[in-house]
Design goal:
Length: 299
């Protein structure tokens, strides 16, 4: 199992890192593909859990939400009809408008269920699923559009001269992968005390501590690449690391409800796409918020 896990990481990690460093439009395309696959897995989990989501509409709503989020993240580079749409929805926000439409459509479909309780559960679960994956995933792309005040994501920063957007994306990857790797190895070798046994029996307190330490090291490398103050990793590592762990537990709770061990099978040794994306879903908004509020970058 460990050998398969390492082989998958050896193949996929360089591809993801190259796309992260190249940036747009490839990053948006990657996030879009990941959302499509993750939404398909999520709908399958919701169905297995007994929520009976409208599968086609749920998938389409998720794709529409993700597209809205990606367009909003790329607003500086969007023109034509999409630019007019962004301007027209500027006050509530394009993502809010699309999600409102999705809620109404999913609610209308729920009316067709003969049992009102089942209809409500289906509506609530599918609406949650759309928000969980399709609203949170585009924050990964938003991180790639962060730049220093007075500059942009294309501004060269730090001693390596990386583009700011690429530097922040690298920071996100280093912290999340650092946490996952540190928690996995520490828990495997030293884990004794269970973290949250009723959701994920394999998670341990020792793994949590080891993951946060490696996440902080990853944040330090990211801070060096970005040229930001060296005290930031002491906050970014634990905050984003804990968010990554929370994202993993959130998906584990869903898998428990569905009676599944993994969300899918597309990533050998790791499970499904959602199994690999779950930590990023919670970590990306936290890193983006920290960068905007505490570091003082702009989008």
């Amino acid at each position: 199992m460990l050998r398969t896990r390492l082989l998958s990481a050896f193949i996929l990690a360089p591809i993801i890192l190259v796309i992260a460093l190249i940036g747009e439009p490839w990053l948006s395309l990657l996030v879009g593909v990941l959302v499509f696959l993750a939404m398909a897995e999520l709908i399958s989990l919701l169905d297995a859990a007994g929520f009976e989501p409208p599968q086609v509409l749920g998938l389409l709503a998720g794709l529409a939400m993700a597209a809205a989020g990606l367009v909003a993240a790329n607003q500086r580079n969007v023109g034509g009809l999409l630019g007019d749409l962004l301007q027209a929805t500027a006050r509530p926000g394009l993502v809010t408008v699309v999600y409102a439409a999705a809620l109404i459509l999913l609610g209308a479909v729920a009316f067709t269920r003969t049992d009102p309780r089942n209809g409500f559960l289906s509506w609530a679960a599918t609406s949650f699923g759309v928000a969980y994956v399709a609203i949170l995933a585009p924050f990964i792309d938003l991180v790639a559009h962060l730049g220093p005040q007075g500059g942009s994501a294309l501004t060269a920063v730090g001693p390596l001269g990386l583009r700011a957007g690429a530097g922040w994306t690298l920071m996100l990857i280093l912290v999340v992968w650092g946490y996952d790797t540190g928690a996995y190895l520490t828990g495997r070798w030293l884990g004794r005390r269970r973290l949250i046994d009723h959701i994920s029996p394999s998670k341990t307190i020792e793994g949590l501590v080891g993951g946060l330490l490696v996440a902080t090291i990853g944040a330090g490398l990211g801070a060096f690449a970005l040229g930001i103050a060296p005290w930031h990793p002491l906050l970014i590592g634990p905050l984003v690391g804990l968010a990554a762990q929370a994202g993993d537990l959130a998906e584990s709770m869903l898998k428990r409800a569905a009676g599944r061990k993994e969300s899918g099978f597309l990533v050998p040794g790791h499970g499904g796409v959602l199994d690999r994306l779950d930590s990023f879903l919670f970590a990306a908004p936290i890193l983006a918020g920290y960068a905007l509020i505490v570091v003082g970058v702009s989008t």
